[in-house]
């Protein structure tokens, strides 16, 4: 038996960027079983049979059900180096094309929405098979989504994102929140009547499945002020910048709880500001017990233990005299103790109700020079690094184009552009 193996990347529409990277957290692929009609489909002309692998079934059994003889199945599977019979999932589509007189001529396994393995008998009537792995192209354009906040950011985007299936709209909101989390505390600052507008890639799979790709530009209006961000490449790497050309990444996050962790628990109608209240010397974030708590910035733990009404509490010293305090914790993350160095966004503990707390929540404080400060004031001027002067002209030109497209709100074919190419952060 002769086996020939090749890899083919199918040519297709290139989206924005030489490499299209999906959102911070990517949308899961739909199992093949959801795409296909249950049971075999047979075409009488060439006796082409389309079926799916059943749970616990051997590949050879599925092939024989599709009309492939036991000997042909054995020869073909020996040639299929790209297929791990122990890991292939139930629901995988199998297409077998059988010639009326000479037997099976082609077998296709659809391993993913955009990936197939094609086995072709090199010489009809022999045991020689050629294996070809093909990556099917996703088409990409850009669309504008968004709306007015009535309850939550996720609700505003979901209501204005008809270009995407409902099941992926929340992930789009979370992806935007991940970009903005260094500039806006979405669980505290967002109010009814604020608005959001997002220019985002729309990726369409060969089978018609739709998912969001990279966020290209966005504008969030919060309490009358605009927070803008856009994707911009430096060399082969793309990052997000604000409207002034400063990196969206800064020395501090604006909230110790990730938006995706609490946005679905509290809404504006259930609590004045998404489960957040102002305390005398800090901010109380209502959240479910066990919700991960993040370090607001790089620093060193100076206290981790029990402290009176705070219950279990962690204190972290940062640069420039900043100290952050996290109280009423259920417990500490592994390795967290006095002297531990922590990186920004590292999980340090978990929301609880220890100390003088009547319900699970996080009590959060910011101290500067030993004095309590409102985080919104203390962190107001903490921004990211600016672009180099040599890149300003390119940035300004790209910003004008992207925000004109954002304001126009019309879907367009994705463009090649230096400003949006490259991999993400």
TrEMBL record:
Example of a GO biological process term: proteolysis
Span of domain Csd3-like second N-terminal: 169-266
InterPro entries on file: Cell_wall_metabolism_enzyme (IPR050570), Csd3_N2 (IPR045834), Dup_hybrid_motif (IPR011055), M23ase_b-sheet_dom (IPR016047)
Source domain of life: Bacteria
Cofactors required: Zn(2+)
Residue intervals passing through the bilayer: none
Cellular component terms (Gene Ontology): cell envelope
Subcellular location field: Cell envelope
Keywords: Hydrolase, Metal-binding, Metalloprotease, Protease, Zinc
Gene3D superfamilies in the record: 3.10.450.350, Glucose Permease (Domain IIA)
GO molecular function terms listed in the Swiss-Prot or TrEMBL record: metal ion binding; metalloendopeptidase activity
Pfam families with a match to the protein in the record: Csd3_N2 (PF19425), Peptidase_M23 (PF01551)
Ranges in a coiled coil: none
The M23ase beta-sheet core domain, residue ranges: 279-375
Name of the molecule in the record: M23 family peptidase
């Amino acid at each position: 038996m002769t086996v020939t193996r090749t890899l083919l990347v199918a040519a297709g529409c290139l989206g924005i960027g030489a490499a299209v990277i999906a959102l911070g957290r990517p949308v899961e692929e739909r199992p093949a079983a959801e795409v296909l009609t249950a049971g075999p489909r047979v075409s009488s002309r060439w006796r082409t049979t389309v079926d799916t692998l059943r749970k616990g079934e051997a590949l050879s059994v599925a092939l024989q059900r599709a009309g492939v003889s036991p000997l042909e199945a054995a020869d073909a599977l020996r040639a299929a180096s790209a297929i791990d019979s122990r890991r292939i999932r139930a629901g995988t589509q199998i297409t077998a094309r059988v010639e009326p007189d000479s037997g099976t001529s082609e077998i296709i396994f659809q391993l993913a929405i955009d990936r197939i393995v094609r086995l072709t008998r090199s010489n009809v009537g022999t045991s020689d098979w050629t294996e070809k792995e093909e990556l099917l192209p996703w088409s990409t354009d850009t669309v504008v989504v968004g709306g007015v906040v009535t309850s939550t950011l996720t609700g505003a985007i979901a209501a204005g994102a008809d270009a995407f299936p409902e099941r992926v709209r929340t992930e789009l909101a979370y992806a935007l929140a991940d970009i903005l989390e260094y500039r806006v505390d979405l669980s505290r600052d967002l109010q009814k009547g604020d608005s959001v507008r997002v220019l985002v890639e729309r990726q369409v799979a060969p089978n018609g499945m739709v998912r969001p790709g990279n966020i290209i530009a966005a504008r969030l209006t919060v309490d009358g002020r605009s927070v803008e961000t856009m994707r911009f490449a430096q060399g082969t790497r793309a990052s997000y910048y604000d409207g002034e050309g400063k990196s969206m990444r800064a020395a501090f996050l604006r909230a110790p709880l990730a938006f995706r962790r609490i946005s679905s628990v509290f809404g504006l109608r259930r609590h004045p500001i998404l489960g957040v209240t102002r305390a005398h010397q800090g901010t109380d974030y209502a959240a479910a017990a066990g919700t991960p708590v993040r370090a607001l910035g790089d620093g060193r733990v100076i206290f981790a233990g029990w402290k009176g009404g705070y219950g279990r509490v962690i204190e972290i010293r940062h640069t420039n005299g900043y100290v952050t305090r996290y109280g009423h914790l259920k417990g500490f993350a592994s390795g967290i103790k006095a002297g531990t160095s922590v990186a920004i966004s590292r999980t340090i503990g978990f929301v609880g109700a220890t100390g003088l707390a009547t319900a699970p929540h996080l009590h959060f404080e910011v101290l500067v020079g030993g004095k309590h400060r409102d985080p919104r004031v203390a962190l107001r001027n903490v921004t990211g690094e600016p672009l180099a002067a040599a890149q300003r002209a390119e940035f300004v030109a790209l910003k004008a184009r992207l925000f004109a497209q954002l304001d126009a709100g019309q879907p367009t074919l994705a463009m090649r552009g230096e400003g949006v190419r490259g991999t993400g952060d």
